[in-house]
Amino acid sequence: MFSQNLKTTSLLIFGALSIFATSCGDDDDKDKPADPIMMEDPEPVTKVSWNYDDKGPAKWGALSPDFILCAEGLKQSPIDLPLASIVNKGDATALTFEYKEDAVLKAINNTHTNEFGVDEGSFVTFNGKKFQLAQFHGHAKSEHQINGEQSPLELHFVHVSEDNELLVVGVLIDEGDENVNYTSFWTEENFLETAAEKVDQSVEGTHDLTKLFPQNSSLYQYDGSLTTPPCSEGVNWNVLTQKITMSADQLALFTNIFDNNYRPVQSLNEREIISTEEDDTVVVNAVNL
What we know:
289 residues, two-stranded antiparallel ribbon, globular
């Protein structure tokens, strides 16, 4: 089991979680098995246009009254994780992961990032409650920093409970060796380009999600927010201290489409950052449904 120590936090998120199934197609496909039910992106969809350029992070708070927390919130994300400020609490609440070895994915470009939607059945359990893995997506450069150091890429694994509580795991990625644990889906055909509206497509095959995290890592936890409008607070952030690597070619698959789609670090505002023990081992237990 993947056991990490975390502090319990109350989580709030805009909007309701729903699930969707892809339509079956024309009559020639009527004998094909139905597509698996996918978890829909739990982050709120806003009607106000925003971006990382002329309507970028410095202006988000003024674009809509609904975005006021982007300008005035006191528990905003991302943050720099200053090591001197971290409190080690080895007896905090455990976080256990159960991920599928045969997950079905959907590649999505939502105009702000490329993400991978995940079918039902991968989850974390936190404080006795299950949180489904809905999707994971990227930001280049990394949104979180560790002691002021920014990585080329950060992935956010977004989990949501039945009552819409949100739990996010962040993984920072540096350039280095090719990451063979991502190659089954991290391919050119699954990074979609779009001009103005969301596009998506099914990802061929099934994929082992149990190997996507570093094998030895502690974890930073703090109370934060969405890193995109409306910047809702109450998000339980969990950033792995150990980074993973991808090759330059792998990183370029993302950055050729999205580069600089990150929000700058926000003020810590005296928040407490908690870390698990440095020798904790990450083990993601497999579950096949």
